[in-house]
């Protein structure tokens, strides 16, 4: 399963990716790139969140079941406070809000984009790589 970490750095899906639009050099086409799934079929966290919820191979739920769970949850009043007092009156709006909530959660920096590896520290100028690491070993 692709990780949900560092998704903010993933470009939207494109069939023809070029490293730099600024340079104007479109001679090197990296081919299909981007998207938040193996095949690039979704470009937002909300669209991605729908997949495991409704997939028969994962959570095997449905928008209706998710909505019922939210309406019955102890946090239903908090959900209304965030998404509006009438959000639970419309099942489509409720499910959309659930997906938006998951997308927002997936943007929590300390959980989903911590940048805590030695390589991240090296890129930030806070660590040195060994000669072997510099050669990719």
Features:
single chain, mainly alpha, 137 residues
Write the topology of this structure:
Blueprint: H1 45-54, H2 63-72, H3 76-83, H4 91-105, H5 109-112, H6 118-123, H7 131-134
Would you mind describing this structure in some detail?
Helices cover 42% and strands 0% of the residues. Helix 1 packs across helix 4 (91-105) and helix 2 (63-72) packs across helix 4. It has 137 residues and is mainly α. The chain starts with 44 loop residues before the first helix and ends with a helix.
What coarse outline follows from CA principal-axis ratios? elongated
- Which percent range fits the helix content? 40-55%
How many beta strands in the DSSP annotation? 0
Strand percentage lies at under 5%
Order of helices and strands: HHHHHHH
Structural class: mainly alpha
Low-confidence stretches: none
| Oligomer class | single chain
Largest sheet: none
Let me know the average pLDDT.
Answer: 90
Distance between the termini: 26 Å
Short description:
By secondary structure, the protein is an all-alpha fold.
